[in-house]
Amino acid sequence: MLIRSKKPWDLPFSEVTPEPAYRSRREFIKVAAAGTVGAIAASVVGRADAAQDLPPLANVAKSSYVVDPKVDPINSYQQITNWNNYYEFGTNKTDPAAYAGRLKTRPWTVKVDGLVGKPGDWAIDDIIKGNQLEERVYRHRCVEGWSYVIPWVGFPFKAIIDKAQPTSQAKFVEFTTLMRGSEMPGLQYAGIPFPYVEGLRMDEAMNPLTLVVVGLYGRMLPNQNGAPIRIHVPWKYGFKSGKSIVRIRFTDSQPRNTWAVQTPNEYGFYANVNPTVDHPRWSQATERRIGELLKRKTLMFNGYGEQVASLYAGMDLRKYY
């Protein structure tokens, strides 16, 4: 008989905040007033509302990958879509909500190549239709010290690995994001090299937590959150999760990810959430949840240590940061 052990995310899906609650504008403004960050985000509510009236995604399954809502309340749709890092649209947190509406996400293809048995150009709608979508409520931690709790909609990245059939020589996977100057004003002044590149080790990419994201709150992914397809790796800082992906390349060498190239003394390849290792310019020991006044203690691996710590057994996580 198969005995399934209880995992930290195994909570009744009924405990996830219902849509009317997390989409309430009035509740958002009330919560946002509790913190400076939230108050700033509230100032652009309506901008994203008007631009991102997105249709629901069909056949989204209920997932057991959720957090305890009593400990980690889900952030509102307005908070998540109005306070973003997305340098292609600007370096201010409110720039993506202001400017990402111009991004055209159809037609869209993702090139899958490198050390794979089945390379190809995959249309985004075929990717969505060809995989069972599920909603997973994950913590999201930014290297700058702020955090969210987000109900992503997507499917495990392992599904792409299985379809592409990487060879035994493939040790890493590299993600390249869109660079389209006519629709992305931040490309002109953000001060980092484009296109944005990120990557994972193959065992990290195959971990069940690594998610291909195509939606939020049961709806299609808003532009400012990385439409139409992005990656989310919940035990790593947010910059590891590439947005608006146009290429997935399997390779035998470690990808030169953008921030490690731009500022190697501040950002490494791994970017695991580690509160014991400070950023050179600030502490990582605490974080500010969007909409909350008080700071929280940052959890090792963002609270996902039971699922991922074994990936780094024997590694010096101060050296491999």
Radius of gyration: 19 Å
Oligomerization status of the protein chains: single chain
- What name does CATH use for the topology? Sulfite Oxidase, Chain A, domain 2
Alpha plus pi helix count: 11
What is the mean predicted local confidence, pLDDT?
88
Low-confidence stretches: 1-51
SSE sequence, one letter per element: HHHHEHHEEHEEHEEHEEEEHEEH
Major sheet characteristics: 8 strands, mixed
Could you say what the CATH architecture is? Alpha-Beta Complex
Distance between the termini: 41 Å
Shape: globular
What is the total number of structural domains? 1
Helical proportion? 10-25%
Identify the CATH class: Alpha Beta
Q: Look at the structure and name the CATH superfamily.
A: Oxidoreductase, molybdopterin-binding domain
Strand percentage lies at 15-25%
